Amino acid sequence: MRALGKRCWAIPEGYIPPASTGTSRQMTSHEAVCMLNTGEREAHVTITIFFSDREPAGPYRMTVPARRTLHQRFNDLTDPEPIPADKDYASVIESDEPIVVQHTRLDSRQAELALLSTIAFSCD
Amino acid sequence: MRALGKRCWAIPEGYIPPASTGTSRQMTSHEAVCMLNTGEREAHVTITIFFSDREPAGPYRMTVPARRTLHQRFNDLTDPEPIPADKDYASVIESDEPIVVQHTRLDSRQAELALLSTIAFSCD
Amino acid sequence: MRALGKRCWAIPEGYIPPASTGTSRQMTSHEAVCMLNTGEREAHVTITIFFSDREPAGPYRMTVPARRTLHQRFNDLTDPEPIPADKDYASVIESDEPIVVQHTRLDSRQAELALLSTIAFSCD
Amino acid sequence: MRALGKRCWAIPEGYIPPASTGTSRQMTSHEAVCMLNTGEREAHVTITIFFSDREPAGPYRMTVPARRTLHQRFNDLTDPEPIPADKDYASVIESDEPIVVQHTRLDSRQAELALLSTIAFSCD
Q1: Hey, which of A110, B69, D4, D52 would disulfide with A123, CB 3.0 to 4.6 Å?
Q2: Per-residue pLDDT of chain A (124 residues; tens, 9 = 90+)
Q3: Is any Cβ of chain B less than 8 angstroms from the Cβ of C66?
Q4: Chain D interface includes C124 (CB < 8 A)
Q5: Phi and psi for A25 in degrees, rounded to 5?
Q6: At A113, is the secondary structure helix, strand, or coil?
Q7: Min CA distance, B73 vs chain C (Å)?
Q8: pLDDT tens, residue by residue, D50-80
Q9: In degrees, to the nearest 5, what angle opens at C-alpha C106 toward C-alphas C105 and C108?
Q10: Longest C-alpha distance within chain B, in Å?
Q11: Largest Cα–Cα distance in chain D?
Q12: Cα D114 from Cα D32, distance rounded (Å)
């Protein structure tokens, strides 16, 4: 299949709850950026995180192999730094190959139950 | 009415919970791809499923008749193979006629209660 | 303000639960099409409803005044016929003036609590 | 990073529950407009609120600094007037610099649990 999508995407919404908030672990939510690479070349992806009160964090680097999808949880990003909890953030996803990007928030009360989702904004 | 929409759509998010996860059947969720064919000719649709760790599955073939909508649950796809549970997936929907595609996750605790939805990304 | 938006929109997803399903009235959900007319002329809107197993219903006619929004519940449409419950449907919204259209499902357990939402697909 | 996005966005859906509705404060929901300014110049944003039965309110003015995101709750807008509760509304977001806009509804039962989200409609 040809490589579908765009090389630049933005997601203005993002929030990781403070660890102390969850009275039970069941209520923890996770935000994920779902990326699809339909093409024949691996896509090298860079994510930049924007905040309301400090300079951006990143770049966070990852690879989406050819003909594969990668559902990356923001909570799992650690290099160059974890995304701080209890702070509003936004993200920009850049790729050297076309990809398609969807933003999803999961509620782990039930395994992988999704609470919201939207196709990201393509900036190309 | 003229045939509205596009011939290629992508949905990066997808997940079918493992059967063993649901402590009660009520918590099972279903993902659906809602397709609308407003035109006067039937649309022959092909769905390809992408994964994070294996080659794509499909093609899954179906028809959306003229002036009809088809709300296809991913869980109901069986030919050429069921979509494996407990694995992240993504989908590409291709049609020989223009259609409009929306991604919806349903929560069967309440009949057809929807939990998330987004218009898919049009790749044309 | 100038008239923002498009004259044709599509929403592939739609479902009204059967009356008998709701064990309690609190779980009833309502689907709405939210229309915004930012312009200086009233918009005359026509909605056509598509099904999986019968010919389309409609046209349903309504007016969105200049500089106004109209949040129309599908459940409240009665002329030329109510939308049948327990059937998948889809909708096309056409207007003689540009409008912006968003699809929202409400959960009446809590007043107007929204469960899902997406900007509709613009067909222009 | 270059300034991503558009200068005009629309969100047809909006609703603030009446204060008396919430039997418990836990069920209060909040709607937010999440704005991302990836560029090097601050963005001066104007929000106009449209209703079903009265003239629009606003302009509400705010600034999104360079390389920052602002998650603005509609409930917190007070100048020139609070947004009335228990009324359907819609919003148009205009900026002198490109921004990306996402609409999110939060459920404060759990800190910042999101219930719905969609990228706004870009009007440029």
Answers
A1: D4
A2: 999 999 999 999 998 877 544 444 445 667 899 999 999 999 999 999 999 999 999 999 999 999 999 999 998 999 999 999 889 999 999 999 999 999 987 765 544 455 678 899 998 7
A3: no
A4: no
A5: -60, -25
A6: strand
A7: 12
A8: 999 999 999 999 999 999 999 999 989 999 9
A9: 155
A10: 47
A11: 47
A12: 10
Interface test with A, best of B103, B121, B122, B124 (most A CBs within 10 A): B121
Residue from B36, D98, D2 nearest C14 by CA: B36
Per-residue three-class SS string for C75-116:
HHCCCCCCCCCCCEEEEEEEEEEEEEEEEEEEECCCCCEEEE
Helices (runs of H) and strands (runs of E) counted in chain A: 0, 8
Contacts of C116 in chain B (CB under 8 A): 104, 114-117
Instruction: Return the DSSP state at A88.
Output: B
Chains near B with 3+ CB pairs less than 8 A apart are A, C
Q: Is the peptide bond before C59 cis (omega within 30 degrees of 0)?
A: yes
Between CA C116 and CA B86 the distance in angstroms is 24
Token pair 């994964």 is at which residue?
Answer: B51
Chain D contact for A49, CB < 8 A?
no
**Cβ atoms of residues C28 and C108 within 8 Å:** yes
Residue B25's φ and ψ, nearest 5 degrees, are -60, -25
Q: What is the DSSP string of D16-54?
A: ---TTT-SSGGG-EEEEEEEEE-SSS-EEEEEEEEESSS
Residue C86: HSE in the Cβ half-sphere, 13 Å Cα cutoff: 5
Beta carbons of C123 and B116 less than 8 Å apart? no
Distances (CA, A) of A108 to A24, A105, A115, C51: 11, 10, 10, 34
pLDDT tens profile C54-108: 999 999 999 999 999 999 999 999 999 999 988 999 999 999 999 999 998 776 5
Return the higher-pLDDT residue of C115 and D16: D16
C118 and B102 Cβ atoms separated by less than 8 Å? yes
Q: Are D1 and D67 in contact (CB under 8 A)?
A: yes
Residue type at D79?
Answer: D
What was the pLDDT predicted at D58?
96
Please, is B5 exposed, middle or buried when counting C-beta atoms within 10 Å of its C-beta (0-12, 13-18, 19+)?
Answer: buried
State pTM to two decimals: 0.92
D76: helix, coil or strand?
helix
Paired tokens of C17: 């639960």
Using a CB-CB distance cutoff of 8 angstroms, which residues of chain D are in contact with residue C35? 12
* Per-residue H/E/C for chain B: CCCCCEEEEEECCCECCCCCCCCCHHHCEEEEEEEEECCCCCEEEEEEEEECCCCCEEEEEEEECCCEEEEEEHHHCCCCCCCCCCCEEEEEEEEEEEEEEEEEEEECCCCCEEEEEEECEECC
